[in-house]
Amino acid sequence: MTPPGAWSTAEGAASWQASLAQRQQSLAFVTELLFAQAGIGPGVRALEVGSGTGDAALLAAARVGPAGSVLATDASAPMLEVAARLAREAGFTNVSTRAVRAEDLDLPPGSFDAAISRNCLMFVPDLPRALRAVRTALRPGGRFAASVWGPLERNPFHGAPIAAVRRRRAIPLPPPEVVQAFSLCSRAALADALRAGGFARIRLQSVPARRSARDANSLPSSRCWDFSRRRSARRPGTRSPANGPGSPPRPDWSCLASSSS
Ligand SMILES: C[S@@+](CC[C@H](N)C(=O)[O-])C[C@H]1O[C@@H](n2cnc3c(N)ncnc32)[C@H](O)[C@@H]1O
């Protein structure tokens, strides 16, 4: 099965990597919290689920140092090829990659001290199975921290274009990958999924991820944005529906969950 959206192709991976600077800025705070909650530090053996092109994996590799290790996993081989190349170019010898769906992770029990997942869990079709696999891979007491997008109404970057398109009745629904992206946006859904995966002592927090309209322009081949730009083409001179040029950027919100195995 291919991952949703354009992530399964080399072109999609290149496009994702092209928006690295935007992610580094908007997700810096979320990433730091993920590391802190999971306990990413020197000597830690870390697992990442849905690494994409590896931005968080490489940051984690620097944190865990030569005594630690990072296994970056993702359903998309092209995304991980970028991650592996970047790791090589940066001289990391403690990063390995494995193209595998989260549901199919089959790692030696207790072989990781910590696990993280940034904005991937909502796309995993069989999430309880995937979370059980993560939990099995963690040593007793090992921690897992994951972020997902918060509610649509608190995410103007994604929510406002979708609302604008809906107002015009150009389409009845946003495309499936957009719906899917918000499938864990309720705190209860995220906590339930973690519990079903066998995790305990679950902690949830809302985290701001600041973005602006300029960020949308840095995602040239994102299907979601192509779709919303096409369908909500505005009259010349009118403003973007959210975070428009000149307006102060409003934060999007992520929900971050951490729990122990
Ligand atoms: C929104 S991107 C996030 C990528 C990366 N974590 C980041 O923050 O840049 C979602 C990622 O989840 C991956 N993905 C989707 N479904 C997956 C699954 N079932 N198992 C593992 N990875 C999956 C995609 O290939 C993609 O790389």
Structural write-up:
The protein has 261 residues and is α/β, with parallel strands linked by helices. The chain has a single domain (6-150, 180-213, 253-260), classed as Rossmann fold, CATH 3.40.50. It is 39% helix and 21% strand. It is built from eleven helices and seven strands. It has helices spanning 10-18, 20-26, 28-38, 55-64, 77-89, 127-137, 156-167, 176-181, 187-196, 213-217, 223-231, and strands spanning 45-49, 69-74, 95-99, 112-118, 138-149, 200-210, 251-260. Strand 4, helix 6 (127-137) and strand 5 form a beta-alpha-beta unit. Helix 1 (10-18) packs across helix 5 (77-89). The model is unreliable at 217-249 (pLDDT under 50). The site of S-adenosylmethionine has 20 residues, from helix 4. S-adenosylmethionine binds next to helix 4.
